[in-house]
Amino acid sequence: MDKIDFFCLAPLMILAAAPVIIMLVVTARRSFILTYALTLIALIADFLSLFLVSPYSPHVFVPLLSIDKFGLLFMGIIMLSAILITILSYEYLRIQFGEREEFFIILLVAVLGASILVLAEHFISFFLGLEILSISLYVLTAYLKWRDICIEAGVKFLVVSSISTAFLLFGMGLIYATTGTMSFSEIAKQGTLLSPVFLVGFGMMLVAIGFKLALFPFHLWAADVYQGAPMPSTAFIATISKGAVFALALRLFIRMNASGNETIVTVLSVISVATMFAGNFLALKQNNLKRLLAYSSIAHMGYLLMTLISGPEGTGAAVFYLSGYIVTTIAAFGVLTGLSVCERDACDTDDVVGLFRKNPWIAIVLTLAMLSLAGLPLTAGFMSKFYLVLSGAGAGHWILAGSLVLNSVISLYYYLRIVRIMFTEPLPGKNPPVPTGINFVIALSFAGILVLGILPSLLLSFINKMM
Questions:
Q1: Could you give the CA distance from residue 338 to residue 91 in angstroms, rounded to a whole number?
Q2: Would you place residue 221 in the very low, low, confident or very high pLDDT band (cuts 50, 70, 90)?
Q3: Alpha carbons 184 and 61: distance in angstroms, whole number
Q4: Angle at CA 53, nearest 5°, toward 65 and 20?
Q5: How far apart are CA 389 and CA 343, in angstroms?
Q6: Count of other CB atoms within 10 angstroms of residue 197
Q7: Distance between CA atoms of 216 and 280, rounded to whole angstroms?
Q8: Which position among 58, 89, 304, 375 has the lowest Cβ density within 10 Å, counted as fewest Cβ atoms?
Q9: DSSP codes, 32-86
């Protein structure tokens, strides 16, 4: 490897070195604030390194990784999200019991796994990135071990991920048996998408991805995991984890030209429509906000599947949609984190009854987040869905585009119900003051939702330059 190789690997090397350095520091002195500061410094340094590496892209590490504009763009989204979730984690964990330094170490490892995923060009790097991410999430999900519901969520996440891994490895084995290679680009050159064995293997990989993205009918226990995990862990799963897996799926489908195979397109179309309706209908009667956001996330992943079917033309819409979805989701979880107390997370509708009277600022932020998830004008959600519909219609997928519009109307019921609850007469008692760090995160998210909704061209022009 030459100097350029090491230079282009800098973002991954920073993420790999940071947990080791923090562990060495912790052995000398346990300090929650110091660990938190080192984590933030590592993530910020990693984000800045992306700009230094960008002029040298695309740089391929044959056959495992591709440091290209696509991967760097998604890594940037992951780093910014990780910085905000780290701040939420610090404020959330301050009120919990026991030593908490290891949470940030595991969080950095999870970010490393997500980053490897978005750069993967080979089944080996695909699998390594996915397992590094998944194993870290087992720990983050069950982190508050004195809460039984956290342990239950961790076990359920482990079971679902294990099933997903089994399908993934079997599918990879069948594809390798057919093509004799595990490189995405080499598999595409084989032109074996019509081979029955290849299609079975590809289908098994699709099942594995379906479990990771909680697509219908692979969404078992997704809501239970959201409900039981600590609030920052839930935010991580809903944003960084799903964003990284979807970025990998997007790269894989584009490399293999899966959008040109009628069988795959038909299967994905059915899953997309079913996921939209399943997520929204399951969310209609939810009184637990974490479960509501879990089912909402399922529906949004159904919307995003349209871009996989649209091929390379849908990449820009996918990136914009993921950006809007992530910033909106972090805003929602930021508010809920600010309302949480030591004994329990704020995840019931009773926790936000009359919130506008008690704390107008965070009520307005949560209201904007709900409106954005619903896709109402002047929000990031509206422009995201608008470009998604344009992408689907442009590729001739009118049924999918119509299903998205119809499901957006259905989702208005449960999103606006939360808004109505916040503006009703408050229940007795006061909400605890929201920490400064959480106010900072939700303020940035609030601004992001409005900027993407009012001035979408700022992000779109940047995406077009990077694609």
A1: 8
A2: confident
A3: 13
A4: 70
A5: 43
A6: 13
A7: 12
A8: 58
A9: HHHHHHHHHHHHHHHHHHHHHHGGG-SEEETTTEEE-HHHHHHHHHHHHHHHHHH
- Surface-to-core class of residue 234, CB atoms within 10 Å of its CB (0-12 exposed, 13-18 middle, 19+ buried): buried
CA dihedral sign of residues 222, 225, 213, 76: positive
CB 273 within 8 A of CB 328: no
Q: Closest Cα to residue 232, out of 97, 361, 112, 94? A: 94
Longest dimension (CA), the chain: 67
Q: How many other C-beta atoms can be found within 10 angstroms of the C-beta atom of residue 40?
A: 16
The residues that bridge with 61 in the sheet, in sequence order, are: 65
Is residue 331 within a helix (H) or strand (E), and if so which, with residue range? helix 315-339
**Block residue for tokens 């091929």:** 311
353: nearest Cα among 435, 419, 285, 439: 419
Other beta carbons less than 10 A from residue 287's beta carbon: 12
Residue 183's SS3 state is strand
Band (pLDDT 50/70/90 cuts) for residue 1 is low
Task: Please check whether residue 236 is in contact with residue 312, taking contact to mean a CB–CB distance below 8 angstroms.
Answer: no
